[in-house]
Each structure stands twice: as structure tokens, then as C-alpha cells.
């Protein structure tokens, strides 16, 4: 297995920020989303913010998000055939800022 596996549509190659995982599970339930691929976690100085996801931009395979908590940042890649529609849906459902 090599340390890589999938739970639902979420690829588990790297650690996922604990507070962000429930948001990723909700996003994985969307029909337009084919896969969610979390990247590496980077540390940041604490600011006491609540965990949230921020839209960044479209990628060739979908959307790039940034997961933010008071002490960490993590890139999240969402694979979808229709990035624009998926971005609008994520905003409407308050999954992202």
C-alpha cells in the first residue's frame, strides 16, 4: 500500500489537519467531486482563528483550496470536471471563504 489509501473520495498520502477533515468529508459527498487530494502541512504562527477552507484558483484537474487553522496551512486539491460550478456550490454551502 505504501502509506497511501483512500477513505471515501479523500486520498490519504499525507496527514490531514484534524479540524479540516470533517469539512473534507462533507465536500467528498458532493456528486461533482471525484477526488480530494490533501498536500503537505506547513506550520504558521498561531493567530487563534477557527479552521476554514479558502478558494485559491482552478487547476487543470479541478480546484486548489488552502486549509487554514491557527497553527497550520495545507493545500487541498479537489478533482472535478466542472470547477466553476463546484466553486459556486462550495461557496453557497459555506464550506469555503
Provide a descriptive summary of the structure in words.
The chain is α+β, with helices and mostly antiparallel strands. The protein has one domain (5-92). Helices cover 19% and strands 42% of the residues. It contains two helices and six strands. It has a four-stranded antiparallel β-sheet with strand order 3-6-5-4, with helices on one face. A hairpin with a 2-residue loop joins strand 4 and strand 5.
Give me the secondary-structure topology:
Elements: E1 5-7, E2 10-12, H1 21-28, E3 33-43, E4 52-59, E5 62-68, E6 72-80, H2 83-92
Antiparallel strand pairs: 1-2, 3-6, 4-5, 5-6
Which class of secondary structure composition applies to the elements?
Answer: alpha+beta
Total of DSSP H or I helical runs spanning 4+ residues: 2
In what range is the share of β-strand residues? 35-45%
Low-pLDDT runs: none
How many domains would you count in the coordinates?
1
**Average residue-wise pLDDT:** 87
**Number of distinct beta strands:** 6
Major β-sheet profile: 4 strands, antiparallel
* Widest β-sheet, arrangement of strands: 3-6-5-4
In whole angstroms, the N-to-C terminal distance is 35 Å
InterPro entries: DUF2103_metal-binding
Protein name: Metal-binding protein
Pfam families: DUF2103
Short structural summary:
By secondary structure, the protein is α+β, with helices and mostly antiparallel strands. The protein contains 2 helices and 6 strands; from the N terminus they run E-E-H-E-E-E-E-H.
Question: Features of this protein?
Answer:
2 helices; two-stranded antiparallel sheet; DUF2103_metal-binding; alpha+beta; 97 residues; 4-stranded antiparallel β-sheet
